Amino acid sequence: xxxxxxxxxxxxxxxxxxxxxxxxxxxxxxxxxxxxxxxxxxxxxxxxxxxxxxxxxxxxxxxxxxxxxxxxxxxxxxxxxxxxxxxxxxxxxxxxxxxxxxxxxxxxxxxxxxxxxxxxxxxxxxxxxxxxxxxxxxxxxxxxxxxxxxxxxxxxxxxxxxxxxxxxxxxxxxxxxxxxxxxxxxxxxxxxxxxxxxxxxxxxxxxxxxxxxxxxxxxxxxxxxxxxxxxxxxxxxxxxxxxxxxxxxxxxxxxxxxxxxxxxx
Amino acid sequence: xxxxxxxxxxxxxxxxxxxxxxxxxxxxxxxxxxxxxxxxxxxxxxxxxxxxxxxxxxxxxxxxxxxxxxxxxxxxxxxxxxxxxxxxxxxxxxxxxxxxxxxxxxxxxxxxxxxxxxxxxxxxxxxxxxxxxxxxxxxxxxxxxxxxxxxxxxxxxxxxxxxxxxxxxxxxxxxxxxxxxxxxxxxxxxxxxxxxxxxxxxxxxxxxxxxxxxxxxxxxxxxxxxxxxxxxxxxxxxxxxxxxxxxxxxxxxxxxxxxxxxxxxxxxxxxxxxxxxxxxxxxxxxxxxxxxxxxxx
Lengths: 265, 297
Description:
heterodimer; A: mainly alpha; 2 domains; 72% helix; elongated; B: 4-stranded antiparallel sheet; 9 helices
């Protein structure tokens, strides 16, 4: 290049004060002249920030479907990442839940008293999901994640919500499709025991691994139902209005215990 | 930024950690500052338990522990420690379906490392430091053992931690990668406290200006590598014949035997054929310290 831009031309171009014709001429020259490009005053911070933006757009990994869906629903990007990263066992649990609920529905429609399977399965479906979602021995990356600022109750409660939302939705849909489901009560009678058992599991996790806590509560439920059946007591009493009151009290107390634990941990 | 930014190191007084009735750590007194400290000891000596206590993964049973001038027993202070600490556990495992980038990004979210762009920049920086940038979009299940180990190291490096706890970090690394690792750790140790728990004595010899040896949950040596080697001076020799049983020895490539004479034991007389005193290595000194008995008959 035999000629170069003078300082005034460069200054006016950089400050957007050059007229259109001059600006186009300067721009055409700069395209071919490295010397003048080097003399062009630049905002290094802005340039670096722009490059960083560009790098991030080009190099950003593709989001998975769950993360995208959560983003569309307005969930914060970081939170969506934490929720979507729940271990693969969570997905296995979700598939198993759908299979169990379809089986329960089929039985309920085909077999006399077939709704009993649903009655005693629905309350522990969310519990098993919570127990499998997080914890040493279940979460493969637990040794890495357990010493991060998010570890402990914050992550546990977030993942519990991630499990409870689909579990409660699926169980509610199944309950509505039950042949006997004519009233609101018949659609949600399992809800309070389910939530109380999840709260019990979270409370117990203070002293033991979450999966063990979930196992203990689930076994307790199955044993209670079994013993009542063996003793000739109708296990459906576990869903009576008196029992629902007891479940509500238990849920309240356990929730208070969890909140206190989170605040004082 | 919190006060942790300028803080570094670890201070432990009478640290005890029990599992049931077994005392895995039995009264540890330790002060660590910037630089690399090597943690040596046999399997079951308490190294990993100590690392887990320092990392806030395990609660201590008794004693006093401060990490980065904070108490791990208080929730808010524990969170501050975790924000400024990197921990590579022994045999880390990952979500195999994640990509290398995805895992680090997930860990960066858990470490509260800012918005998406800053986080991604930090992830790229960590991947470059462990030479995995070109494999950033590979699924972890497709990475070799050495690459996974480097990925674990990258998770520990996120956020430029003031305290870096590395438990067996060079397992599975090839010689070239180990040199890169040493270079990286030396660079980090200029301003951060690095604790390196390992069985790789050569890593300790190359990196550490201080060595802490554990046995039975207690500290049996705390000093420089040179001081540890001095203890072995005059107690290491090579000879033509295999020594008597009960003495640590091994056969060398040239058919001679390297012999370590336990501290306090008299040298056998008359001298075995071909006996020549040799300069002890750090490994010799460590073996003498722990009273390891190998070779022999």
